[in-house]
Amino acid sequence: MQLYKNIKLISDAKNISIAHIEKAADLGNGTINRWDTSYPSIDKVQRVADYLQIPMYLLVSDDITHEFQKHKLRDRPVTGAELTVVIKTQVCIGEGTEDDLGRYLYQYWSLEGKLLAEQDEFEKNTL
Q: pTM (2 decimals)?
């Protein structure tokens, strides 16, 4: 199945073993390998995407080659870090039709109530 192949491609690019991803995502040993022949629950796929810090749609895409290059999933050196407090909200949007898929929109707000960013996995140029 494409899901396993995509995870393997991304994990190899990031130099992370499948076993490490399983442990970090709180999945049993060998779970991801079994996704080559069976369908996992969406929450497990989301945990893997969260750990890899990529949109979930990249994991389930039929052809991630273009997206993979666009997102430049290879590790980059960290040049700075800062602890910031934000409020993350989750909003259900979309009509659930083929033209307007039902999905979650994640919004990030400052403590003062200013919208800082939005993340919609089906839209480009978010977050």
A: 0.54
